[in-house]
Design brief:
alpha/beta; TIM Barrel; seven-stranded parallel sheet; 9 strands; about 15% strand; globular; binds coproporphyrinogen III
Length: about 350
C-alpha cells in the first residue's frame, strides 16, 4: 500500500465521506454460499473449522471473489473466547452453540486466562495469512464479542431471547457477575491487541444481546465494558479504528457512541435513518443498517432500501452493511446485486 493511500474502510472510519461508500456484510462468509457449505463438510466440528487456518482463510476469501467487498472479516466466532478460557463449547447442527453453563463463583474460578493466546494462536495465523492473500485495497477486520454478549452464552449455556439467568445474576450479585465481565474485558482486550499485531486493521466488537437491558444495566454492562476495551486497545494501538455494535440499543446508541470512544457504530435495522443521521453521524462513522430479511426477500423493495440508505448517509462518514448477519437461506444473487448497486452509486 502506498503511503497516504489508506484503504477505503479505514478512511471512512477516520471520518471521511467516501463515495461510493465502502461496504462489507456481517456474516459475508457462511451457509448462504454453496462454496462455504462444501468446505464446511470437510471439518469435523465448527470450532475445528475455525481453528484450521487453511479452511478459515479460504472461506474468508470466498465472499471477496463474488462481491469485491471493501473488507474481509476473518472467519472465526465470538465463542472462541469461552473455549480458550476452558469452558466446554460445542456447536450442534440446527441448534447453534451449547455451553456448559458458568453460574457461580466456583465455575468462574475454573476459567483460566493463562491459556488464552496459546489456544488462539491459529486465529493470529489466519489474520497474518489473510493480510498476505487479500487484495491490496481490501481492509482486514478482526473482531470479538463484547463482554455482555459473550457472558450471555457463558451463563445461559446458549443464546437466549430473554437472557433471564444472566440478568437475574447481574441484579442479585453485581459484584460476582462483575468478576465475569472483568475477566472478559481483560481477555477480549488482550485478544484484540494480538489481532492487530497479527494484521487486523479495523476491529469490531459485537454486542448482539445489548438490547435486552434496562437503562441502568445498559450503562453498567454495555457502555462501561466496551469503553474499557476501547481504552485498553487504544493505549497500545491508538491508530486502530474500532466499530461498536450494541444491537437493539435504541435511544441509548447515542450515549454508547459518546461514552465508549468508538470510531464507528454499527446500527441494527430498527434504528430510524434520519435520527441516526442527525444524532449519530456527527459524532462518528455510521455503519449499517439494511434489514437482513429484505436482503433475503430481494426484488424492487431491496433496491429501494439500498438507495434510501445510500442517499441518507453518503454525504458523511458511512460504511454500508446490514443490521445483522446474512441469513443462511439468502440467495447469493441478492447479495451480489446490492454490492453492484453500491459500487455504481454516484451522488
Ligand atoms: O463472515 C463473518 O461475518 C465472520 C464470521 C462470524 C461468524 N460468527 C461465523 C459463524 C462472525 C463475525 C460471528 C459472530 C458471532 N457469533 C456473533 C455476533 C454477531 C451476531 O450474529 O449476532 C454471535 C452472537 C455468534 C454466536 C454464534 N455462532 C451463533 C449464535 C451461531 C449459530 C447460529 C447459526 O447461524 O448457525 C454461530 C455459528 C456460526 N458462526 C456460523 C458461522 C458461519 C454457522 C455455523 C456453521 O457453519 O455450521
Amino acid at each position: 500500500m502506498k503511503p497516504g493511500s489508506e484503504r477505503k474502510l479505514v478512511r471512512a472510519l477516520k471520518g471521511e465521506a467516501v463515495s461510493p461508500p465502502p461496504f462489507w456484510f456481517m456474516r459475508q462468509a457462511g451457509r448462504y454460499l454453496p462454496e462455504y457449505r462444501e468446505i464446511r463438510q470437510t471439518a469435523t466440528s465448527f470450532l475445528d473449522f475455525c481453528y484450521t487456518p487453511d479452511l478459515a482463510v479460504e472461506v474468508t476469501l470466498q465472499p471477496l471473489r463474488r462481491l469485491q467487498a471493501d473488507a474481509a472479516i476473518m472467519f472465526s466466532d465470538i465463542l472462541v473466547i469461552p473455549d480458550a478460557l476452558g469452558q466446554q463449547v460445542a456447536f450442534r447442527e440446527g441448534e447453534g452453540p451449547v455451553l456448559e453453563p458458568v453460574r457461580d463463583a466456583e465455575a468462574l474460578a475454573k476459567l483460566d486466562m493463562g491459556r488464552l493466546h496459546d489456544h488462539l494462536a491459529p486465529v493470529y495465523e489466519i489474520l497474518t495469512r489473510l493480510r498476505r492473500e487479500i487484495p491490496d485495497e481490501t481492509a482486514l477486520i478482526g473482531f470479538a464479542g463484547a463482554p455482555w454478549t459473550i457472558a450471555i452464552y457463558m451463563v445461559e449455556g446458549r443464546g437466549g431471547t430473554e437472557c433471564g439467568r444472566a440478568r437475574t445474576w447481574a441484579y442479585q450479585d453485581p459484584d460476582g457477575f462483575g468478576k465475569l465481565i472483568d475477566l472478559l474485558v481483560q481477555s477480549i482486550s488482550s485478544y484484540l491487541i494480538r489481532q492487530v499485531e497479527a494484521g487486523a486493521e479495523v476491529l469490531q466488537l459485537f454486542d448482539s444481546w445489548a438490547g435486552v437491558l434496562s437503562e441502568t444495566q445498559f450503562r453498567r454492562w454495555i457502555i462501561e465494558p466496551n469503553r474499557q476495551i476501547v481504552e485498553r486497545v487504544k493505549a497500545v494501538h491508538p491508530e486502530i479504528p474500532i466499530i461498536g455494535f450494541p444491537r437493539n440499543a435504541g435511544a441509548l446508541y447515542r450515549d454508547f457512541v459518546e461514552q465508549t470512544g468508538v470510531d464507528g457504530v454499527s446500527l441494527d435495522h430498527t434504528v430510524p435513518l434520519n435520527w441516526a443521521k442527525e444524532q449519530l453521524q456527527p459524532l462518528c462513522t455510521v455503519q449499517g443498517n439494511l434489514d437482513n430479511h429484505i436482503l433475503l426477500a430481494g426484488g424492487q423493495a431491496l433496491e429501494e432500501s439500498v438507495e434510501i440508505l445510500l442517499k441518507t448517509f453518503s454525504d458523511g462518514p458511512f460504511v454500508f452493511n446490514l443490521g445483522h448477519g446474512i441469513l443462511p437461506s439468502t440467495p447469493p444473487e441478492n447479495v451480489e446485486r446490492v454490492a453492484e448497486l453500491i459500487r455504481g452509486w454516484t451522488t
